[in-house]
From TrEMBL:
Residues 1-19 form the signal peptide. It comes from the Bacteria. This is DUF4374 domain-containing protein. InterPro entries: WD40/YVTN_repeat-like_dom_sf. The keyword Signal applies.
Amino acid sequence: MKKLALTALSAALLTGCFGDDSSNDSNTVDTDDIQGHIFIAQLISGDYKTSEIAIGTVGESEFVENYASQDASDYTIDVYEQYLYHIGRFNIDTLTRYDAAADFLQADYTYSLAEAESSSSNTHQFVQVAEDKAYVIRYGKTSIQIVDPSAVDEQNFVIGEIELSEYVAEDATYPRMTRALVHEDKLFVGLQRLGNADSSYAVASDSYVAVIDIATNTEIDTNESAPGLKGIQLNADNLKAMAIEDDYLYVAGRGDYSDNSGALDRISLSDYSVDTLIDGSTFAALNDVDSGAYYHVQAVEVVDDTLFVQINLEGGEAPRGYIYSAPISNPANFTDVTPEAFAGEKIAVIQSGPDDTLWVSLDNVETPDVYVLNESAEVQGEALEFSMPVREIEFMEIQD
């Protein structure tokens, strides 16, 4: 799929730079002629020294790169309505906001997420729930920050916090909150509960999902009849991803970095009970014990009535990724639906997209492509050919 130089974009698509830190400063991002969805992708170089953002229109064959170029790689993105948030993570600790209503011309602000005389916040997600309220999901802290994204200065940005220190595993320092999503006025927060660096961040305790009442900013006790932690105990170690549909929350945990394959858990939203859909034996045929290759449950996404799971085979001589799917009505029946177009390739991320699609990015510095699949896992059109691997994809709807 064709990439456009910044100076060659037509007015009907996107033109120009993306904030003050772009490597180009002569153009603007013009959203006036765009209707529908745009995609925003966080790109990270293969040597993990640089990063940038790419942006394009969903369904079109052209996109642009070199937005928000950085001489550091640990960045991620989140979106809320017309706002794009560019998040600097470990030892960067910044939050920069751009507004589609202003054509992404300049950053609204860049606020520090660091705390004085403290370790890095290492923010993993920024979950906005209203114009004046968002949650900062901090991998390197014991509490969620509550912030006002509309604050006109940094002094009025932080407005509260929710303490989750009870989830810190023995001999660890932080609960390692890593993913979060909102559903029906509740914030679901995934906590890995890993050990510290001196243990190579090994699995220390069972992962949990804490449930927060957005109206009161208090944690909900998901099992009032039992003592202990209020959250939902998982079978999926080292939580990596979550997805939700009307009745269930799906949680993928990759396990450790050897023979613990992790799991895929399904949580009932009515009573918070947990069923395990995938465990360490489900795809045992993929393992090559002699070479030290084991599969890991890396991610989960819901596309209409279909559940998609990313399985990574790691270790050994030929690491690679697979896409498995199952109907939500029968989630015990998983089938390998990896398209031939990228069979044998390593997969970086999967992300559900507009119009019942699944976007798949390859973890390959030579061909860092993104494929768009339909609900049947059929490739739609040509691959998007980026200059470096895509590590995060978000979508934004552009309206009049």
